[in-house]
Amino acid sequence: MAIVDVSIIPIGTGTPSVSSYVADIHKVLQRHEGRVKYTLTPMNTIIEGELPVLLEVIQDMHEVPFTKGAMRVATNIRIDDRRDKESTMEKKLASVRSKL
Q: Taking every annotated instance into account, which residue ranges of this chain make up the domain Thiamine-binding protein (predicted)?
């Protein structure tokens, strides 16, 4: 199970607002519900699942700004793929909270 931090940045949209892009990208995640878990944050999206599935979902997410007319898209991905034990978003947060 992997956890991925992903930010998709449409470039050259003519406006500094990207909320409509974020909303449409979120719809991609909703279509993949059951295959991945996700959390939308003010700065990025965190998704959890099997790495091959996550990479497929990220590619679908990356394509969204192009379908809305963007000519350039920058996608930042950070992967946490721990294989010595099961790691989930909830377990990572619980571990930190237990130490506070």
A: 4-97
Averaged pLDDT, groups of 10, the chain, 100 residues long: 96 90 96 96 96 97 96 97 90 93
The CATH number given to whatever domain includes residue 29 is 3.30.70.930
Question: In terms of pTM, does the model score above 0.85?
Answer: yes
Per the structure, the complete domain to which residue 81 belongs is given by: 2-98
Domain count for the chain: 1
Q: What pLDDT, on a 0 to 100 scale, did the predictor assign at position 14?
A: 86
3-state secondary structure of 49: strand
Token couple for 61: 């997410």
* CA 52 to chain CA mean position, Å: 14
E strand or H helix that includes residue 78: strand 72-81
